[in-house]
Amino acid sequence: MTAKRKLEEKKKWIIGICLVLGIIFLILSEYPFGDKTNSAKETVFDETAYTADLENRLCGILEKMEGVSQVSVMITLEGGISYQYASQTAKSLSGEKESWESFLTMQEDSAGQTQPILTQTRLPKVKGASVVCKGAENENLRRRIIGLVASTLDLNENQIYVTE
């Protein structure tokens, strides 16, 4: 075997190895290392935890009122969480007929996936509150409790019940 032939065979091996490595890298680039499907940190809304947090915070502030003790609060919610996304509106003409279409505005996240742009998250609205506590038999204190709950949760007084 001549030196020229050995060199040509070596080139073929190098080209073959490069081709195999290229295919391997191509396959590996498509493989999702880590969690690429949820790279935008999605948080799942937990209605029970949200309600419990509101109740605990309200109990804490009510217990600081003079004459109020052993507070228990129950809050009810109306509806659920809602999301608002950025959108674009386009006008289209078909003959003499005019129509408008809305499209979500999309963006590419760090994982290369297209996601709609979230502009606002609305938590559920508080529908009502019940308060059971020591000291509520005093009408003046009961009115102050109702006032505090109404202003804290943005409720009307008829949406709040206070008893001992």
Quick recap of the structure?
This protein is of the alpha+beta class. The protein folds into three domains: 3-31; 35-81 and 123-164, GMP Synthetase, Chain A, domain 3, CATH 3.30.300; 83-122, no CATH class. It contains three helices and nine strands, in the order ααββββββββαβ.
How are the elements arranged and paired?
Blueprint: H1 3-30, H2 47-63, E1 69-78, E2 82-85, E3 87-94, E4 97-104, E5 106-108, E6 114-116, E7 118-122, E8 125-134, H3 139-153, E9 160-163
Parallel strand pairs: 8-9
Antiparallel strand pairs: 1-8, 2-7, 3-4, 5-6
Task: Give a written overview of the molecule.
The chain has 164 residues and is α+β, with helices and mostly antiparallel strands. The chain has three domains: 3-31; 35-81 and 123-164, 2-Layer Sandwich (GMP Synthetase, Chain A, domain 3), CATH 3.30.300.30; 83-122, no CATH class. The chain has three helices and nine strands; from the N terminus they run H-H-E-E-E-E-E-E-E-E-H-E. The protein has helices at residues 3-30, 47-63, 139-153; strands spanning 69-78, 82-85, 87-94, 97-104, 106-108, 114-116, 118-122, 125-134, 160-163. A hairpin with a 5-residue loop joins strand 5 and strand 6 (114-116). The chain is elongated, with a radius of gyration of 32 Å.
Strand order of the largest sheet: 1-8-9
Taken together, the total number of domains comes to: 3
* Average pLDDT reading: 81
Structural class estimated from helices and strands: alpha+beta
The level 1 CATH classification of the largest domain is Alpha Beta
Q: Helical region count?
A: 3
Strand content: 25-35%
